[in-house]
Design brief:
The complex is a heterodimer of chains A (296) and B (497).
Chain A: H1 11-30, E1 35-36, H2 38-41, E2 43-49, H3 57-63, H4 66-69, E3 73-77, E4 81-86, H5 92-106, E5 109-115, H6 117-145, H7 148-172, E6 175-176, H8 178-205, H9 213-248, H10 252-295
Parallel strand pairs in A: 1-6
Antiparallel strand pairs in A: 2-4, 2-5, 3-4
Helix pairs in contact in A: 1-7, 6-7, 6-8, 7-8, 7-10, 8-9, 8-10, 9-10
Chain B: H1 2-27, H2 31-34, H3 39-42, E1 44-52, H4 61-77, E2 84-88, E3 92-98, H5 103-111, E4 116-120, E5 123-124, E6 133-135, H6 140-151, E7 162-170, E8 177-185, E9 190-191, E10 195-204, E11 211-217, H7 219-239, E12 243-249, E13 252-255, E14 258-259, E15 266-269, H8 280-292, E16 298-307, H9 309-362, H10 369-398, H11 403-434, H12 439-469, H13 485-496
Antiparallel strand pairs in B: 1-3, 1-16, 2-3, 4-9, 4-12, 5-8, 6-8, 7-8, 10-11, 11-15, 12-13, 12-14
Classes of the chains: A alpha+beta (296), B alpha+beta (497).
Chain lengths: 296, 497
Amino acid sequence: MFEKIDFVGGWKLYFSLSAVLLLAGVVAIALGGLNFGIDFRGGAQFTVANAERHLSDEQVRAALPEDLAGESVVTTMGQNGYEVRTPVISSQQEQSQVRDSLSRAFGGEVSVTTVSPAFGQQLRNQALQAVVAALIIIVAFISFRFEFAFALAAMAALVHDILMTVGFYAIVGREVSLVTVVAVLTVLGYSIYDTIIIFDRIRENAPTVGYNRRRFDEMINRSIRQVVRRSIYTSIFTLIPITALLIFGEATLSDFAFALLVGIVAGTYSSIFIASPVLSLYKAWRAGKLQAARST
Amino acid sequence: MVSRRNNLIVLALVVVLLGVAAYFIFIDEPVTKSTQLGLDLQGGVSAQLKGSQTGGGKVTRQEMEQSADLIRQRIDRLGVSEPDVRVQSENQIVVQIPGVKNPEEVIRIIGSTAQLGFYQVLASDPSLTEAPQVVAAEEVDKTEEDIRANLQDDDAYKEGRTKILFEETPSPDGKGTSVIGYIVHKNPDLTGDALKQNGANVEFDQTTGKRIVSLELTSEGGRQMGELTQNMLADAAASGEPARLAIALDQDIQSAPTVQEPLGQNISISNDGLPNGLPEDEAKQLETVLNTGALPVNMQVISETTVGPTLGFSSLKSGLLASVVGFGLVLLLLLVIYRALGVVADVALLIYAFLLWGLIVIIPITVTLPGIAGIVLSIGVAADANVVIFERIKEEIRRGKTPRSAIQAGYDKGYRAILDGNITTLITAFILFALSSGSVRGFAVLLAIGVVLSMFTAIVITRALLGLLSDRGIHLSPAMMGVSKASISAAQQARAK
């Protein structure tokens, strides 16, 4: 399969393809495209299930106290579900009033989630810590099992996947919640797994002595051809249940599935078209430096 | 033949495991009860509270444990079933209560520090002598600001030595809230220590018939109360204003009766403005928090989730539907791609799914919404372990090996890649577990268990099944494993070059 494709030699094309998408993502982030949910900002979210009446945005706002109405966001979920997000509500009493009035207006059951801004801050810090810790530990693990060049290449692929997922979120404008971070971390684990399967084959095929760029690149190409089918199958096998989650799952599950979908596609792409060329380029650069050192 | 016997032994053990799982899932308890569902799937309240010292000092683990204990007692007194109260990280408490009708009230009760304080009223909002201000709920904050500004000009107000507290009560017509502001000393003149154990009781006033909460003080407390009220009466006689005793819980005044004569061990919190006295639930709350005593630290609700049973059920339904559809499609695709090998993989995956369910019941793990996501993801991981090995086997067959030796070689070579790959997924799961809380942990736990179990099924069960399949009695053609003749010859040609 893919006999004609030069996975290593075509790196300029693959890198620029990614670069264009990443740039679009970065621009979207810079333009404030990331829509942080109450998990990170603090605030309250009222979820209406089994609503008997369909209300317009205006009607929902009318049911809210004046000071909240202006800054609230109303979204529909499924056929008779609604979600109303408001800024932080100061007292339990007021929260209970909002809940009651929404319940009266919609004629359905109302569930509430509130997060204080301080806790949102804490969640945000924890999330960042988790991502950084995961990156460091995984690189250490690969350096230990393989060699540093492989770890560096894997790292490049990981950063690519994270940026791609976050960028896509900014472009689409979906809400970023705690679940999104969990999904990103899962993508990390998945992408590294994919990369390792390819690297494992490269390691197996690598000659024990001597480095020759042409031979090494050919060997990488051969290794990728040997495992690319597995990479694609695995992506499909993982994407099937995730797509089912995206379609059938509600709220949290569908958010989670969306992030995974983007991340896993990016992860499969990056293990083949980013990690492997980076490995080749780094090896070539090292060899060039060593040679330069030897010749002087 | 030795290997055949080994394979049979392995499969017999798997059957035993399946039996154990089936026992715990279906027989030990009815199936609807055996699997523990999280609050996001069955409905309920969960809240995270953060403890802090008034002065900003450090909160000790012991104080947190003590607070958790008191919170548990308060919930028990409310008659709510099976609360789960845990201390998390150094200064947080997580409270989870399934199926509650009035979540806001419960949270108010568990979160209030419940520091009882008695204060001499130094001055009050002038409107007290006339009718108190009645305002709509959302204007309470603004009204209090106005009253505060007003009272700060009063002679009795001395910055640093006094403070202003408010009494908020529903007005008799039920349409608004009446707000009264009081100037009192910064520290309570008498604290909750004066209250006798279980000294608070909901009662009805013998003369008026209104609902009150009676407070019985210790003898020492009674003596101090006598002294305090005596002084207050003396002050009142000098100024001509009536003496008022404010009874406050935390920073909210519950009641501020006028004192006619020195009080002793028995006093009461009442509301003379309402026709029936204190509202029933409010009286009950007061009794509960006063009798369990004050929390050793201040508690602040930092996050709260209330899920109604309808929403929970619909989440559960959609999660299960997604899992089943996803799982079914994965099984189907494995069959299409790998034919005979696919049958083996499907059997292994079904065993995997059933054992995973068994583990969830036996350990037990509470299944939450993110947990379902973890399970769905682990289906992909489990399928993948088979894919890696099968692709290896097919590769070996293309090189002209017999099915039997191809299976052997495929395992030996695929094993290492699976191990490395799964370890990285485990690392992610552990990091998620260590650095997060609540629902995310459910995801991490299920993902980790799924990964370990999927390695077990791929390496032990799939292998034993394939071993039997490749036995001499059964002939497997390459086509039956999804390898076409063309690809075999292509591979051979490629090698010949």
